[in-house]
Design goal:
Elements: H1 20-30, E1 48-50, E2 56-58, H2 59-67, H3 91-114, E3 135-137, E4 142-144, H4 146-154, H5 156-159, E5 163-164, E6 184-186, E7 191-193, H6 195-200, E8 207-209, H7 210-318, H8 323-333, H9 357-384, E9 402-404, E10 410-413, E11 433-434, E12 443-449, E13 456-462, E14 479-485, E15 489-492, E16 498-500, E17 508-514, E18 519-524, E19 529-534, E20 543-548, E21 561-564
Antiparallel strand pairs: 1-2, 3-4, 3-5, 6-7, 6-8, 9-10, 10-21, 11-20, 12-17, 12-21, 13-14, 13-20, 14-15, 15-16, 17-18, 18-19
């Protein structure tokens, strides 16, 4: 269903000039918007066409209208056409529509540009509605719109005035003392001054034109802006880095949860399986004991039944008063030779013994737990080995009796004190040495071979530890370390020393540190076993790897501590 509007085109009196563009522009200015609307779509004509009856429509509108109608007729006057007319765009009306649209757009644009919006400088001359100022005059101290600016552009006297882009508060651009424009910059006092200030109040000062100082400051601002943009970029990169870190953390958390669920599910199943096996073993023992008892009771009851029958026969015969019957029956009873019966004095059914069953089940469970624990530590060790760092020994920290290899990877006690400078970093009394590398964030891991040694210390220390005289190895004193003494006594030097019970003697020890997490862990690399972990540590300084090969002991402890390359397995 269509809504139609009658459109009348006025032609008389519109085209009196010789320029057709002027004629169409004038015509479009005289005609109203309604006269450029299609009566079908009620919008401004698009590709206007004229049909034989003289009415005009958008080409697409009339085409679609005829497609949906049985007859080809005019939507306005209803005139019927036997054959569908050939539609050609009416170029005159089309050009009129273009002129109309341009005129309307210019009016809208002009209106929007002229009226001063909030934040824009208004014209000081306009009364009523304030139009947007195009320029400000530093001589008149007035801002002008396009119309009121014209005298400054045409009149000779006003052309000499200094015009600038529109600004508010023009009075602030004048010297309050001399009422002159601020045209110079005093570099001595770092302030804007007028020409009179430069000769009266700022004698012997250094001056430059405002434009020159402006350009210099602009360069500084551009440099500052570039620095700010660089800072912004760095912070955006830091945000991306942190987001990436969070993503990795989420991946690690998901993996850890999945592994935790898998391990604890396996442990739960193992516990349930061992419990079921224990209960089944106990029940089978009880069942066997019960069956033995039932068999013995059944046999006893049978003998009791037989004996009761015999007792009844004996009692019945003893009550007989028939002499002949008693004597004849007595011999058949075999009173003196009763029926053979089992000797029950040595028969017993002792209660089943359950001692050791629970212990045995727990031992089996412990073996399962140890297997799962070994798998966990193996997986954990592979992960921490990815944080391997290259550590070398620092000769400036080494005790004078220690001998370091040329590559800085081995150290042992030389039993001879060398003459070395007693610098602040060097250990004076204890046979210790630190790594050159320090760490103040993130995670790091390194491995040390301890094969053949009977004593050693290993770990990490904070930078500010005491290196002179006797030292105490404890977290409170800045040491997170473990040691070996007497060939087989392992100890973690925590706030309270912890004796370590190890299944095997480590040949290679791995040290892992998570600075932010406050974690220091020691691993038996070959056995893939956790030796000890310091947790909830508070790190606020640089950390250094710590090594102590201990004394020579006549060759018993001559083997060196060796920093090994980390073999990372997939």
């Amino acid at each position: 269903m269509f809504v139609y509007r009658n459109i009348t085109l006025y032609s008389s009196g519109l085209f009196s000039t010789t320029d057709p563009n002027t004629d169409m522009s004038a015509a479009s200015n005289l005609l109203s918007e309604d006269q450029f609307l299609c009566s079908i779509c009620l919008d401004v004509f698009t590709d206007p066409v004229t049909i034989p009856c003289g009415h005009n429509f958008c080409k697409n509108c009339i085409t679609e209208h005829w497609k949906t109608s049985d007859r080809c007729l005019c939507p306005l006057c209803k005139e019927v056409f036997n054959t569908r007319p050939v539609l050609r765009v009416n170029t005159f009306i089309s050009e009129m529509v273009v002129q109309f649209r341009q005129s309307a757009q210019q009016k809208t644009s002009s209106s929007e540009q002229q009226v001063a919006k909030p934040g824009e400088v208004p014209c000081d001359v306009c009364t009523g509605t304030k139009l947007k100022a195009l320029k400000s005059c530093l001589v008149c101290l007035v801002s002008y719109c396009e119309t009121h600016l014209e005298p400054h552009l045409t009149m000779t006297g006003l052309k000499r005035h200094q015009l600038i882009d529109p600004v508010e508060n023009l009075e602030a651009r004048m010297c309050t003392k001399h009422d002159k424009p601020l045209e110079l910059f005093c570099k001595t006092d770092q302030t804007c001054v007028c020409m009179l200030c430069s000769v009266l109040d700022h004698k012997m000062h250094e001056f430059v034109p405002l434009k020159e100082e402006y350009e210099g400051k602009k360069v500084e601002l551009e440099k500052t802006e570039a620095e700010i943009q660089q800072m912004i970029m760095k912070r955006r990169l830091k945000i991306q880095e942190i987001k990436h870190s969070v993503d990795l953390s989420e991946e690690d958390a998901d993996r850890e949860k999945a592994e935790g669920v898998q391990v604890f599910t396996a442990l739960k199943e193992s516990v349930e399986r061992r419990l079921n096996e224990l209960i089944k073993t106990i029940e089978e023992k009880q069942k066997t004991t019960k069956k033995q008892a039932e068999d013995v009771i059944r046999e006893l009851e049978q003998e009791i039944s037989d004996l009761m029958k015999r007792s009844t026969e004996v009692e019945k015969l003893s009550l007989s008063e028939d002499h002949l019957h008693l004597l004849q029956s007595f011999s058949s009873l075999n009173i003196h030779h009763p029926s053979p019966t089992k000797d029950w004095t040595k028969v017993s059914v002792p209660p089943a013994s359950y001692e050791g069953n629970v212990v045995k089940a727990v031992v089996h469970l412990e073996e399962s737990l140890s297997e799962e624990m070994k798998k966990l530590v193996e997986a954990e060790l592979k992960r921490v080995q990815k944080y391997a760092v290259d550590v070398t020994l620092d000769p400036d920290t080494a005790h004078p009796e220690l001998i370091l290899s040329d590559d800085g990877k081995q150290v042992h006690h030389g039993d001879v004190k060398k003459k070395l400078p007693n610098n602040p970093e060097r250990f004076s009394d204890c046979n210790c040495v630190l790594g050159k590398q320090s760490f103040s964030s993130g995670r790091f891991y390194f491995e040390i071979e301890v094969k053949g040694k009977t004593e050693w210390d290993l770990g990490v220390v904070r930078e500010s530890i005491n290196r002179k005289g006797d030292i105490t190895l404890s977290p409170e004193d800045g040491y997170w370390a473990i040691w070996l003494r007497n060939g087989n006594e392992y100890e973690a030097l925590d706030d309270r020393s912890v004796l370590l019970s190890l299944k095997s003697r480590p040949q290679k020890v791995g040290v892992f540190v998570d600075y932010e997490e406050g974690l220091v862990s020691f691993y038996d690399v070959d056995a893939a076993a956790l030796i000890y972990s310091f947790t909830d540590c508070s790190f606020t300084e640089k950390l250094f790897p710590y090594f102590c090969p201990s004394l020579y002991y006549g060759g018993k402890n001559s083997a060196p501590l060796i920093i090994c390359p980390v073999s990372q397995t997939a």
